[in-house]
TrEMBL record:
Organism expressing this protein natively: Parasphingorhabdus marina DSM 22363
Chain ranges of the EAL domain: 24-275
Protein name stated in the entry: PAS domain S-box-containing protein/diguanylate cyclase (GGDEF) domain-containing protein
Full protein: residues contained: 328 to 616 of 724
Highest taxon above the source species: Bacteria
Amino acid sequence: AAKGAGRGRFSFFSEKLLEAVNERKILEDDLRDALDRNEIELHYQPLVKSTTDKVSCFEALMRWNHHERGPISPGIFVPIAEETKLVLELGTWAIRQACHDAMSWPGKVRVAVNVSPIQFADPNLPEIVKQALKSSGLHPDRLELEITESVFLEETTETEEMFASLKRLGVRLALDDFGTGYSSLSYLQNAPFDKIKIDQSFVRGSNKPGSRNGAIIAAIVALAEALKMDTTAEGIEAHDELDWIKSLNVSQIQGYIYSKPIIQDEVLGHFGSGEWKIEPEGPALQRDD
Ligand code: C2E
Ligand code: MG
Ligand code: MG
Ligand code: MG
């Protein structure tokens, strides 16, 4: 009987596994056509200067509106795009689209685009960025590339050269999801980041009594200030979180409390109505284009 139950359980699991594998294959195939089908779009979420509540930047966040399944979260499709290298094509599209969209925003508002470690390892990345800036006309200082610590997993001369090439283009670099990876201080010592984005896991519950998150955020802010980098706290949802984060002198705040990611038309609407004021962040721009 035990043997029978075991076998039954095994076949139940293998069917589930088969289903998952098929499901994954379907998504992978559909993702190959998603750009051509116009199913991919960028939504934009504001980063707000914590001392003035004014908008300084928007993060571009990719969305997939599947023709049958509806919206699929980047948490699901980005890993598939990375494994299949489709992220190279999607990522190039995102950089170009974001630069183009940012040209319709008030003059000093930046756009931040997420760059996958797969893209970061692609020697063509600097040329792709350069072309996107050129064809859109966006000032390089208005483009920020968000990179996670995973690009340091294999720290090679290629990694260093990629950082140098991107900096030479004049774009800004942000270290995304700081605190969730290895968070080695040597990354900060060597890599030319302009901003550290503090992962939302440190924000959740940071205001609760006994939480150590406040101390951790304060330490990250002190470190960033000493290294002349900006800081952004991600994922602020509640007023008590906002008050607490502001007291820790984080430079920018990003979270549902200000806005969820929205489409370009809504961004333009908010600026058009005067509802959103702008506040440049970081060093002043050289040119006003
Ligand atoms: P991320 O770069 O860390 O982006 C921040 C995520 O936090 C976004 O999730 C955003 O919608 C979410 N978020 C912002 N404020 C709040 C808040 O107050 N509460 C909560 N609970 N969440 C908040 P999203 O859009 O689902 O993206 C997830 C991840 O997918 C991103 O994390 C990024 O790693 C990746 N991703 C998104 N777009 C792209 C892209 O164009 N290229 C690449 N390579 N990765 C992307
Ligand atoms: Mg990001
Ligand atoms: Mg992040
Ligand atoms: Mg994240």
